[in-house]
Each structure stands twice: as C-alpha cells, then as structure tokens.
Amino acid sequence: MPAERLLLLETSGRVGQVGLAEGERMISVGQLDPARRHARDLTTEIQRQLATQGWGIRDVTAVAVSRGPGSFTGLRVGIAAANALAYATGCRVVGVETFAAIAAQAHEPLNALEIIADAHQGKLFRQSFVRSHDECAWAPVSPISVVLLEDWLASRNADVLLSGPGIRVLRDRLGVDVRLSDESSWEPNLKGVLAIARRALERRPDEEPRSIEPLYVRASAAEENRTGASLTR
C-alpha cells in the first residue's frame, strides 16, 4: 500500500508553517510571514509546496491541521483551508490539538510533562501529560484549563518536565530547579503535528472526511471586552 501523503498546516503558533509528508517522512517545510497571517498567504504557500514536490492537490490523501488553543486568527485561517481542501478533494482531515503536538516534540527521559501557554491577563493555559504504556508517546491526563499565573507558580511541581510557549513569558520566574524541554520544542511545529496525525489516521483508517472545529479554551479578547462592557451598562 502506498504511503499516506499528508499536507500539514500549523497556524496556531507565532510562526505559521506549511509542509508535506509521505508516511512518517517529512518532505518539505515552509514558513508563513508572521506579520501577514492571511488566507491568501496560506494558499500561496500550499501551492508552492505542492508544485515543488510535483504533487497535485488530489495527490494529498489527508490534511492535518492544528486546532488550538492558539491564535484566533491563525486557527480560523488554517482550519478553513483544511476543511475546504477535504470538501473539494474528498481527502481525510485530522485536527491536532496544539498542546498534544508540543508534547510529541518532547523527548527528555521523564514520565510527567506539563504544557503551558500565556492566556494573558495574569492567566495560563495548562495541560498535563504522562508517558503512555508504550513509553514512546505522551498521553493527556487532564483537559486544557485556564489557571491564575500566581496560583500555578505557587503549586508547580519541580519534578515535572515543562514545555510550551508560556516558558518564554515566565522563564525569569521559574527558578533554578525547573526541568525544561529543549527550547526548540516549546513552540508547535510540523513534526509534532505529523506525529499526532499519523496516530489518529492509523486508529481510524476508514473514517470519512469531516469538518474540524477550532479548540477555543476561552473567548477572544474582543469577545471578553464586549461581554465586560455589556455587564457594566
């Protein structure tokens, strides 16, 4: 059986990425301009990647896309593109939780991991993982939640490996006892997206294409401001 040909989209983080993979092998990776995260730029990069490898859009058998949490604009753009491609070509589409992708990038020999990201206004997104039974993958043991930064700092377990984009914001407050994953793995990347997507495709090989929804753990800043304004009237 020929290897699955995947189009990979990561638009939840600071720098959007587009790539192609064949089976477990990453073939190409391209970056989007972080200052211009628009549907037009994403489509152009997808076309460029396909043309470089000599693939047509119908050669893609599955699209894997980050579904959050992350940039509201980035998630909408990436997921809209993935759903449109699946609808137009009939290929499968896989939504990859951003924290699961980041966890898949951590290879340090510890058994407990926590992913954190800045939720702004003195809050953090967090999720805990442990080594799965095969000791080569991370399994979530809690849902993604929003916690107060000061509460998290006071209760943090120094024996747990820490990763995620929130480290860049908190590094000066973490202390000397913190166990950090390699800095190159803090942001979501296509290797993590590919690892999670392949597991999902192997578990559900005959699943029909379906639409992916963004994972929004909290409302956008605009929605929160609007809600706050309505409560003060």
Question: Which SSEs are present, and which pair or pack?
Answer:
Elements: E1 5-10, E2 17-22, E3 25-31, H1 39-53, E4 62-68, H2 72-89, E5 92-97, H3 98-104, E6 112-120, E7 123-131, E8 138-140, E9 145-148, H4 149-155, E10 161-163, H5 166-170, E11 179-180, H6 190-203, H7 221-232
Parallel strand pairs: 1-4, 4-5, 6-10, 10-11
Antiparallel strand pairs: 1-2, 2-3, 6-7, 7-8, 7-9
Can you describe what's shown?
- The chain has 233 residues and is of the alpha/beta class.
- It folds into two domains: 5-99 and 188-229, 2-Layer Sandwich (Nucleotidyltransferase, domain 5), CATH 3.30.420; 108-182, Nucleotidyltransferase, domain 5.
- 33% of the residues lie in helices and 27% in strands.
- The protein has seven helices and eleven strands.
- It has helices spanning 39-53, 72-89, 98-104, 149-155, 166-170, 190-203, 221-232; strands at residues 5-10, 17-22, 25-31, 62-68, 92-97, 112-120, 123-131, 138-140, 145-148, 161-163, 179-180.
- Strands 6, 7, 8, 9, 10 and 11 form a six-stranded mixed beta sheet that branches.
- Helix 3 (98-104) crosses helix 6.
- The radius of gyration is 18 Å and the shape is globular.
- The N and C termini lie far apart (63 Å).
